[in-house]
Amino acid sequence: SVDCSFSRGVCDWKQDADDDFDWNPADRDRGDGYYMAVPAFVGHKNDIGRLKLLLTDLKPKSSYCLVFSYRLAGEKVGKLRVFLANKKTAPVWEENKGKDEKWRTGKIEIFQGAETTNSVTFESERGKGKNGEIGVDNVILISGLCPED
Description:
Elements lengths: L1 E2 L8 E4 L8 E4 L6 E6 L8 E7 L8 E11 L4 E7 L8 E3 L8 E8 L7 E8 L6 E11 L6
Antiparallel strand pairs: 1-11, 2-5, 3-4, 4-11, 5-10, 6-9, 6-11, 7-8, 7-10
Protein name: EGFL6 protein
Organism: Catharus fuscescens (Veery)
InterPro entries: ConA-like_dom_sf (IPR013320), MAM_dom (IPR000998), MAM_domain-containing (IPR051560)
């Protein structure tokens, strides 16, 4: 497995230059490193911020599981979507409300077929809310299919 966490990961993360705002590092409550976040007050409603994970060494014709922690904290904070590079049109994962401020786990299967997925994009869309944040942490890439819960 490959640790793509922000504090100590070995992966290549890039801010999208063509979006409306950047994701920012935020300190973890436990004080051990940081996660990436978009505070609710950044930008205007429907503004988009994209954080891209570049995947350069994935083997063709194999499966991977992308596991990550996420949270949507705050009323009408917005949407969090995940896109794979070879499926540009529709998100492969989307969440638009947090039941509470807890961190949850997201999982996405990445199949390396004829086309190679060379990047994963975490996209935050600003909602109407004025407080809270959208956060992503603990991004890990595991070889093979996603485990059942």
